[in-house]
Design a protein that fits this description.
Helix content is 0%, strand content 58%. The chain is mainly β and 78 residues long. A hairpin with a 5-residue loop joins strand 3 and strand 4 (36-42). The N and C termini lie far apart (36 Å).
Length: 78
């Protein structure tokens, strides 16, 4: 049974959890005009600190072996 890849909470206040991601996947965060503003390696359960970023809407991608395995919008609202 494959567990779903979860990214929560959304909207979030700066602390983001990525759950059930394949080991050594890459989490990338993009601003609304498409500039990459953050990148980090994630695994089974990873806590990310996004508190330095301004409130707003971002796009994220989770990439494994050069393939996007999940992408969605993320709202930061502190």
């Amino acid at each position: 049974l494959v567990k779903p890849l979860n990214v929560y909470p959304n909207p979030n206040s700066g602390k983001l959890t990525v759950e059930n991601s394949p080991e050594n996947s890459i989490f990338e965060l993009y601003d609304i005009v498409g500039r990459k503003v953050y990148s980090n390696t994630v695994g089974n359960v990873t806590q990310l600190d996004l508190s330095p970023f301004n409130n707003g809407t971002y796009l994220y991608k989770i990439i494994k072996d050069n393939k996007i395995i999940k992408e969605d919008k993320l709202i930061i609202n502190k």
